[in-house]
Amino acid sequence: MHTIIHYRATMSTILDAPEAPGIDALIAARLRREREARGWSIADLAAASGVSRAMISKVERAEASPTASLLGRLSGALHLTVSTLLARAEADAGPARIARAAAQPLWTDPATGYRRRAVSPPGAEPELVEVELPPGARVAYTAGSFAFLRGQVVWVLAGRLTVEEGTEEALLGPGDSLAFDLAAPKGHAFRNPSAVRPCRYLVALHRR
Asked: The whole model's pTM is what?
């Protein structure tokens, strides 16, 4: 008598991350963690960044939503890029290989209305960020914000985008992409030249 053995195929499920706290709370906790890891007081970070102690305290308590410019100053003082600081904050929500659209962290710059969505799962390489830039808005970053990146590419999804890189600028339309010169990083800015239409683009970042 022959015994027939049946094997039942099983598939594992790639689990999503648990529901995460809001992005402002994640930024607040991560900023405090980075400061304390260096043995810095709020006064030390204020002196290094040029941001007032009162504002840093508010950000660390999630009582104020930091602007893109303010995050640039704080992250630069900590020797981090804005992207790295935000990526670490998002990673604090917990590991996951799937980033569901509804759960992707969305951050809005209160100064310009710039909206940043973390598309890739926390800690993934490359890091993918979707941005919506309101009509006429401009967001600028200093050269120090990119010292920790190996590569950065912007790809326009909708609208038109002017990219300023040092003294040069390029106008991009839907489907156009631009790779930044990180061998000699310069301050750069993203500007929406339209007075009526938002611009939507994807940024791919590869950290060192």
From this structure: 0.67
